[in-house]
Amino acid sequence: MVSRRVLLLVSLSLLNPCPAFKVPPRVTVGPANPYVVEWSQNVTLSCTTKDAKPPIKALYWEKDGDRIQPPNRDSGKYVNGNMNAPFLLIRNVSKEEAGNYACVVDHVTGKHRSALTLKVLYPAIITNITKQVAPDVISLHCFADGNPKPEIMWTKAGSFVPLDAKHFPDDGMATHVLANVRANDSGVYICTARNGYGVAESRSLRIIVAGEVQSPWKKTPQIAIIAGVSAAAAWVIVCTVLVACSVHRKMKRNTATVPRYALQLSYLEGKRKGANEHGRKYARVLYDYDPKDDDELQLRSNDIIDIIRGDNEGWWFGYLNGRCGLFPSNYVEVITVTEREGI
Question: What sequence ranges are listed for the domain Ig-like (predicted)?
Answer without folding.
Answer: 25-119, 123-206
